[in-house]
Amino acid sequence: MALVKLYLGVLLCAPLALAAGIAEVIAQTPELSTLNSILTTDHPDLLAELNATAGTFFAPSNDALNAFISAADPNQLTAEVLKDLVNYHLSPTTLSAADLGQAGGKIAETKLSDPAFANLGGPANVVYASAYGSTGQDAAPGPLKVYSGIGGESTVTNPDIQYDGGLMHVIDRVLDFPQSCTTTMQAKSLTTLLDAVKRTNYADTIDLPAKFTCLAPTNEAIQGAGIDISALSDQQVLDALKYHSIPGEVDYSTVLEDGKEYPTLLGPTVKVHKKDGQLYFNDVAVQQGNIITNNGVAHVLSGVLISPTDAWATTTAVDTATTI
Ligand SMILES: *[C@@H]1O[C@H](CO)[C@@H](O)[C@H](O)[C@H]1NC(C)=O
Question: CA separation (Å) from 320 to 121, 218, 229, 305?
Fold first, then answer.
């Protein structure tokens, strides 16, 4: 009898000791106590859903969540927003820090399929993970980061925590939702470009299609190229904007091929180069790559793209790419 009891005890206890859903691992990880209390106290349904999923979870640390909460409007943190937020931090595939930190970086699909944040013609939106900078081209690996919307960068501070369904990585900053290209320009203070977009009523052209790649020169890039937009006609501005637009595809750096040409909305192509630790369109280096937008991706440029037919070329053509 005693033996049978012992046998049963071992049988029952062994699986219990092994079972560690996300819920249990979050509860056991001190740096996730804020996340744990939000989920267990206020959102048990969300916790149950999270606990039932498999894949990769980017878990915001206590500092990350406290900073996020203090910056947010509490009225806007509805159950629906929190659910979207959890979904954006979840990838359906199990990706280790080594997978995410591979040379060139890694696009990871998430579970964020709310059409407000995922207008990609079907699939859920993504994050870009990289230990090689925002373009994935750095010569040597640095900290593993997760790049999200509006230029947000989160560093993985505690990688590869195992749970039943996959892996969890603690991050030091809550991921930002992907926004439209023009909202992204605003967030990145690309005001000269944004003024040009407004003047030509160009916003819908880049914000509404289901797949789009925005190339976005900084204010300094436009000024450095000697371009005075107020001196150009509306048509000239529109043509210049179209040469910075790649319609119909989402060209993350991982998709772009060295030496390949990509047709712009204007017609002429831009040619991609990956060299000297940088990502280039024509001879212009990307200053910040892979900003995830709701309908694709934006790359911030350190210079201006001059198309063969572009009126901008008639102003002083300074090669700003070499000044960074
Ligand atoms: C989470 O899932 C595990 C199985 O992976 C289960 O043992 C545990 O009871 C679940 N916890 C909650 C809070 O739902």
Answer: 36, 11, 17, 10
Q: Which residues of 47-69 are buried (b: 16+ CB within 10 A; e: fewer)?
A: beebbebebbbbbbbbebbeebe
pLDDT of residue 18: 57
> Shortest CA distance to 57 belongs to which of 34, 19, 85?
85
Nearest CA to ligand 1 atom 5: 21
Task: Encode pLDDT of 260-304 as tens digits.
Answer: 999 999 999 999 999 999 999 999 999 999 999 999 999 999 999
Residues 210 and 124 in one domain: no
23 lines ligand 1 (CB under 6 A): yes
User: What does the alpha-carbon distance between residue 225 and residue 216 come to, in Å, rounded to a whole number?
Assistant: 14
User: What pTM, to 2 d.p., does this model score?
Assistant: 0.90
Q: Residue 308 domain-assigned?
A: no
Domain with 207 in it: what CATH number? Answer: 2.30.180.10
